[in-house]
Amino acid sequence: MKKNLLKITSICALAFALPAHAALIGAVDRDYGNTADKYTPSSVLANGSCDSAHSNWLSITNADSCGRFYDEFNFSHMLYDSIDSFSLTITFSHSNNSFMGFIPTEFWNLRPASSASNGGATGPSIGRVGSGITTRTFNFDNTMDMFNDIVANQSFFLWMAHEGFGQQNFRLYSASLAVNGIEAAAPTAVPTPAGIGLLGLGLALLGFSRRKTKK
């Protein structure tokens, strides 16, 4: 009897204490431009910036005399126990300038940072595309530079690094940062339908076991 009761109790406890799994915690979305429904980063509006905002895109420019482009994706409002990775999706075009029409001169890379002044090593290339609008997703985990600093500061700063020569630019239409990890537990636990069902099954098995013991 005691053994049966212990098994049933374990089943019911498992129903209310299932382990959490890494999943999407939340996302911060940007649609860039200079109209009322668009977003213009503060770095584009700052003195010394060579970047410019248009109706539904930003012109990101590289030049020694220009201020750096950056955009902050703050996730301090999200409730989480831990963060495992970030996924950054950007939509862009015009990143394939060349010299004399065939020598590539434009190589833009993502450079994740923890602030407007603290960035790690240059990250992946966004790719060289023409006038056609392209969307690509890049994943970052704890193997990347700045990961721990970004999590601690609760802000992912997007920098753009240019490795070509001459003054170049490309168009950035949108960006979305997905934060992945383990969500924080709710303040008060509410039994789920599945948990209630398992609890009922456990009680039924307990009653059946008691009747069998009496016989």
UniProtKB/TrEMBL annotation:
Signal keyword on record: yes
Keyword Transmembrane attached: yes
Highest taxon of the lineage: Bacteria
Transmembrane stretches, start-end: 190-208
This protein's UniProt keywords: Membrane, Signal, Transmembrane, Transmembrane helix
Signal sequence coordinates: 1-22
Protein's UniProt name: PEP-CTERM protein-sorting domain-containing protein
Taxonomic path: Bacteria, Pseudomonadati, Pseudomonadota, Gammaproteobacteria, Chromatiales
